[in-house]
Amino acid sequence: KEGPGGLTVAEITNSLAESTIALQGAHVMTWQPHGQAPVLWLSRFGKFAPGKSIRGGVPVCWPWFGPHAEDAKLPGHGFARTVMWEVQETRAQPDGATFISFGLIETDATRAQWPHPSSAKLRVTVGAELKVELATRNTGSAPFQIGEALHTYFHISDVADMKIKGLEGCTYLDKVGGTTSKTQQGPIVIESEVDRVYLNTESDCLIEDLGLKRQIRIATRSSRSTVVWNPWIEKAEKMGDFGPEGYRGMVCVESANAVDNVVTVLPGAEHILQAMISVEALA
Ligand code: TA6
Fold this sequence. Notes:
Elements: E1 9-13, E2 17-22, E3 27-33, E4 60-61, E5 85-92, E6 98-104, H1 108-113, E7 118-126, E8 130-138, E9 144-146, E10 148-150, E11 153-155, E12 162-165, E13 171-174, E14 180-183, E15 194-198, E16 205-209, E17 214-221, E18 225-230, H2 232-239, E19 250-257, E20 263-265, E21 270-281
Antiparallel strand pairs: 1-2, 2-3, 4-10, 5-6, 6-7, 7-8, 8-21, 9-20, 10-19, 11-19, 12-16, 13-14, 13-15, 15-18, 16-17, 17-21, 18-19
This protein binds 6-O-phosphono-beta-D-tagatofuranose (TA6).
6-O-phosphono-beta-D-tagatofuranose (TA6) is lined by residues 53, 66, 76-77, 151, 195, 227, 229, 252, 254.
């Protein structure tokens, strides 16, 4: 049906959860298991317009993450989040969850930016858990490299009442004030702008939220990087689509393959990045 800004959205409601997914970007905008506060953060001040990335939910960054390595004119985080995808399959699962898959629609414009024969699919399972799989198949005869992220915005009660666990001891690139390499000591606490790419990450991440008395668990497969981002006051103001104090209620914990962890996809092979998101009560 028609969603905000005239975007076409799929609305999914089942016995376990509800979710809204825009066809532009195959962008999961909301996911709310019944009885829970929303798990994804979606800005109320976002642009919601054709060709503009939605601020919140799960933007799909593909086939590169951040600026393009060779051509600064190409869009940051790739084009997948701003082009149209089509629904390819929907299926009810035995446990009551809903499976829906999307394929990126190739056009002359996408081929001009990404001349490698390939297909991109996003498979989403909406249930008590949200599972998002980004599959890249190399349909050509030469290998190519991709960067990618499920750039997930999580809804939290307040950034001051939140900690991120699971990245202790990992090396990260700190992108605030120049790029430096650092090692994470203890859980992540956010008290100023944070923009970090954690490399070679293996463990589940937990967003512990004392205000909502819950923790969000992010389990992954074939994701070697985890990006953590909160723009804080000035940057959020400059971006113009966070709204007043918007930065306080969100944190991005992104399941990714970026920087040193970009992925080579061989001819005929399929690479699948997966994130499984669930919510647990805090004792
Ligand atoms: O993932 C973090 C990041 O790359 C930041 O550097 C930040 O600017 C952000 O993504 C949002 O990017 P966007 O292009 O959506 O404004």
